[in-house]
UniProtKB/TrEMBL annotation:
Iron listed as a keyword: no
Residues annotated as domain HTH lysR-type: 26-83
Taxonomic lineage: Bacteria, Pseudomonadati, Pseudomonadota, Alphaproteobacteria, Rhodobacterales
Name by which UniProt lists this protein: Transcriptional regulator, LysR family domain protein, putative
Keywords: DNA-binding, Transcription, Transcription regulation
Length: 306
């Protein structure tokens, strides 16, 4: 029989002075306990990962449950499982933790209502990503992005629709998986192919995003927009300025591009994330110098003939 966690593992029963709002550091730790336990479903493993104590993790979970008014876990034969409330709360908790870490380091901000992510390393490597208004597609001078948005509308997001056929060579397609976003298709005329070459591009099919050139940091920075489009089944435009090698193990090269993410569907109606990418001709990220564009290789562009 399922039991609420606090029913079989009581925590400190000494009356506590109620607080109207938990201190930010405490809330962060409470959410970290929840996310870690949800990932492991094993209290001992969660405690080890957090270098914490069993009592602390249990207390954090009970405080969250009391505040939220619903159990997050049930326990049967000492095995943890997420309740419906826990399953619904987990994705946002992970998002808040990830964005909180970036925010604390000054790497994420909202500017004019648009999310900006910035990451710089001492060796000079940087990654700047800023969400842009969709109107920039029409004002930004990219016929390929304009055609991609029109094709998405006409096809209603159906990847195999005849209305989207002409755009397939110019886009990348991703599928969500337990290991993150997996690339399932690379267009032979896409910006990705122009940057890395066709042989390298083809070898990327089936690889998790975190294994692409750029590493785990690249995956983390891309995750927020991908998840938003998956949740809303909509479209999103971002501009990215960074340095990425043009071959495995190569020297990072300056790169600036606009990326249109579109919610799509495979023939079996499962979610497909479609990405259309084109070279930036202007930089619309505050604090990033447009001279960056002059350092980009001249052949890093999409030749659109649609």
């Amino acid at each position: 029989m399922n039991q609420h966690m606090s029913d079989i593992e009581p925590v400190n029963t000494v009356p506590q002075t109620p607080q109207k709002e938990p201190a930010p550091a405490l809330l962060f730790e409470m959410m970290r306990s929840f996310v870690t336990l949800a990932s492991t479903l094993n209290l001992s493993h969660a405690v080890a990962q957090m270098t914490s104590t069993r009592q602390t993790v249990r207390r954090h979970i009970q405080q969250l449950e009391d505040t939220m008014g619903a159990p997050l876990f049930s326990i049967e034969n000492r095995r943890y499982s997420l309740t419906k409330a826990g399953e619904e709360a987990l994705p946002e908790a992970r998002d808040i933790l990830d964005r909180g870490k970036l925010w604390l380091g000054g790497k994420t901000r909202h500017i004019d209502g648009m999310l900006r992510l910035s990451y710089e390393e001492p060796n000079g490597w940087c990654f700047h990503q800023k969400q842009q208004p969709l109107s920039l597609i029409w004002d930004g001078g990219s016929p390929m992005l304009q055609a991609a948005l029109e094709a998405w509308t006409q096809s209603r997001g159906e990847l195999e629709s005849e209305a989207f056929r002409a755009m397939r060579p110019y886009v990348l397609v991703y599928r969500d998986s337990p290991n993150g976003w997996i690339c399932t298709e690379v267009g032979e005329k896409s910006f990705y192919t122009q940057w890395w070459g066709w042989s390298n591009a083809r070898s990327s099919i089936g690889r998790p995003l975190k294994l692409f050139p750029g590493g785990p940091e690249f995956e983390n920075m891309l995750n927020f927009p991908f998840r938003e489009v998956e949740a809303t089944y909509g479209v999103r435009l971002d501009e990215v300025v960074t340095q990425i090698p043009r071959e495995e193990g190569g020297h990072p090269v300056p790169l600036a591009y606009k990326r249109l993410l579109m919610a799509g569907r495979y023939p079996d109606k499962s979610f497909a994330l479609i990405a259309a990418v084109d070279r930036s001709t202007t930089v619309n990220i505050e604090g990033v110098d447009e001279t960056f564009l002059q350092e980009m290789p001249l052949d890093a562009k999409v030749t659109f003939t649609g």
